[in-house]
Amino acid sequence: MADPSLRQALEANEFILAPGVFDMISAKVADGMGFRALYATGFGVTASHLGVADAGIATYTDMVSRMGTIARGCRTPLIADADTGYGGLLNVRHTVAGYEAAGVTAIQLEDQEMPKKCGHTPGRRVIPAEEMALKIRVAVETRKSPDFLIIARTDARTSLGLEEAIRRGKIYAEAGADVIFIESPETEAEMAEVGKQIRKPLFANMVEGGRTPILPAETLHKYGYRIAIYPAVGFLTVAAALERAYAQLKKDGHSNNLPADASYGFGRMCELMGFPEVWEFDRKWAEIAGNLPPRKAAE
């Protein structure tokens, strides 16, 4: 069931900062930190689940299963990447219904041709704006709850220019999208221009090393952005930490020399994964089982 708090925050003109999560460890860590939303990144989920590029290889079945696992395992509302809707209009209907049933609160749909590519990589091509507008209309018609937000993304900026990207954003807003996502503007001035021209809540994609400048939350809010995602910060940090730890292990032949702050700690990880509840369950039922009469030998 979609969490109404995201729509309420948008209506109250609040700013939502959402870290990228890509598996259940990253999701559970972020879930306990007080964010208003989490963003399930297509790049990160595809990489962690399949170990391949975010280039249209992951299917609807791959993604809805992983997104549902994350949504069910967290208290924080989840914004989920759904690529192009995995096909045409019928696929979009199936995708929206599936993501909403899985417990996601907001779905991101983009206007790329299939197979899609990561929004901060080259070679992206887009479908006609009118075709994407139909996808948005189908998505709006399909959702069961108005609290399930439709985020419409255009990748037109890189190949067709900012003016075309803004034109598409306006068309997608008219089609019923709740939030407009102009992917990869290349300067702060471009981001400000988007905010001047599109009168809908805007979505900012802050990728370390990407095409768009990373701006403070206060600046984004001033320009009209209401949601900012940091999809890569988690998996980029984790990959670097793993590389350092594995290199130290290989060099020393043991893990005793890892810096004290390099490890989350086995005890903390047990708590994060819910082991105390499991242990309490075991204690309770072991005591009850211990009071059962002895089993009779089979005759």
UniProtKB/TrEMBL annotation:
It holds the Pfam family PEP_mutase. Signal peptide: none annotated. SUPFAM superfamilies: Phosphoenolpyruvate/pyruvate domain (SSF51621). GO terms for molecular function: oxo-acid-lyase activity. CDD domains: ICL_PEPM. This is Carboxyvinyl-carboxyphosphonate phosphorylmutase.
